[in-house]
Amino acid sequence: MDEKLTHIDEAGNVVMVDVGGKADTRRRAVVRCRVLLNANTFNLLTRNALPKGDVLTTAKVAGIMAAKRTWELIPMCHPILLSKADVRLTPVPADLSIEIEAEARTTGPTGVEMEALMAAQVAAMTIYDMCKAVQRDIVITDCRLTHKSGGKSGEFNAE
Prior knowledge:
CATH superfamily: Molybdopterin cofactor biosynthesis C (MoaC) domain
Order of helices and strands: EHHHEEHEE
Number of strands: 5
Number of domains: 1
Shape: elongated
CATH topology: Alpha-Beta Plaits
CATH class: Alpha Beta
Radius of gyration: 18 Å
CATH architecture: 2-Layer Sandwich
């Protein structure tokens, strides 16, 4: 793996990486995170009984929208053409959490890790926003890249 920070030039200035000479490859990234709720909030969410409406559908749409707009919020990200963006939300009764898995795909000269990270985080924040009327101590946790494939660095799978 390259030890050099790619968004810093030799003089220490912030730069956007030039990907113009890189080959197009099929790229995929998957990110997971969790939203921890209390029993009352989890029950209301899974019964679709929260005051703001269908939390999981809203969070899914918000995450997909966020993936498509990542380049507008992360300064050195390239605008890329996504071939797929998806957010899967799974209620986990054992620990009163919502497990979020976000996926982004493209064929191009740069990766989609930031798009998957953005999708997962915005989905989690949407759950928070829609549940905050009944619970203020919601925790968003364990956000991490779990899979990346494509490009020069090849495949990565978290343990």
